[in-house]
Specification:
By secondary structure, the chain is α/β, with parallel strands linked by helices. The protein has one domain: P-loop containing nucleotide triphosphate hydrolases (Rossmann fold, 3-Layer(aba) Sandwich), CATH 3.40.50.300. 52% of the residues lie in helices and 13% in strands. The strands form two sheets. A five-stranded parallel sheet has the order 2-3-1-4-7, sandwiched between helices. The chain has a two-stranded antiparallel ribbon with strand order 5-6. A hairpin with a 6-residue loop joins β5 and β6. Bound molecules: adenosine-5'-diphosphate (2 copies). One adenosine-5'-diphosphate (ADP) binds next to α1, α6, β6 and α10.
């Protein structure tokens, strides 16, 4: 089963994607996580991506497509994946369609996490990530356990100005994917992402397994 988690930055894609991956037993492919790892390791790809990420702009499509190609070639991905943060524009969505089609697969579902902009800014300022596991926490809504709290980090692009710019990029380039997939006849489910994390998770499972 190939699923796409769609939603503004901070809508909860990473949080729900990790939980869904565990529940469904299929891997999560988070292009943002892959990029941040390349930045940390200072690979040529990471060095190229960093300036776009710091500015809150999208990294060029050909870079992203290469990453997704590699991720889908892994044996772990053969029964499907959960895409978090990809596709981000219509070009990426069209390319994904072609890649999946070659493998006899298709987008089986699109989950749209809906959260208004004001809530997003508050979420991003409190977001912390465990660099060892990649798990995402929030200082108020989902505090890290004591043994993890000492090592969590704040993302460089989670400051208010960059967040506001990323929201604009989302509205202009990514939100049109909702109608793109509706036109394609994919199953698109809108989920209220403002509710408590466990309630959002339960709602996603309800729409996937009616
Ligand atoms: P968030 O979870 O806040 O939406 P991501 O971790 O998905 O953020 O992405 C962080 C940054 O990485 C984006 O602002 C963008 O620069 C880059 N990025 C991630 N995924 C993509 C993608 N599919 N296409 C282009 N750029 C991407
Ligand atoms: P995305 O991957 O869409 O950018 P994240 O999963 O990283 O979003 O979540 C952004 C921040 O909001 C994190 O600090 C996370 O702990 C917090 N968060 C996620 N879901 C909820 C929720 N339902 N209610 C409150 N905070 C949440």
């Amino acid at each position: 089963m190939d699923l796409i988690l769609l939603g503004a930055p901070g809508a909860g894609k990473g949080t729900q994607g990790s939980r869904l991956a565990e529940t469904l037993g299929i891997p999560k492919v988070a292009t943002g996580d892959i990029l941040r790892e390349s930045v940390r390791e200072k690979t040529p790809l990471g060095l190229k991506a960093k300036e776009y990420m710091d500015a809150g702009e999208l990294v060029p499509d050909e870079v992203i497509l290469g990453l997704v190609h590699d991720a889908l070639a892994s044996p772990a991905a053969e029964n499907g994946v959960i895409f978090d943060g990809f596709p981000r524009n219509v070009k990426q969505a069209e390319d994904l369609g072609r890649i999946l089609e070659k493998a006899g697969r298709r987008v089986d579902g699109v989950i749209v996490l809906e959260v208004p902009d004001d809530a997003i800014v508050e979420r991003m300022s409190g977001r912390r990530t465990d660099p060892d596991t990649g798990l995402v926490y929030h200082v108020v809504h989902n505090p890290p356990p004591a043994e993890v709290a000492g090592r969590v980090i704040q993302r460089a692009d989670d400051h208010e100005d960059t967040v506001r710019h990323r929201l604009k990029v989302y509205a202009e380039q990514t939100a049109p994917l909702i109608s793109f997939y509706e036109r394609e006849g994919a199953v698109v489910s809108r989920v209220d992402g403002t509710r408590e994390i466990n309630e959002v998770q339960a709602e996603i499972l309800r729409v996937l397994r009616p």
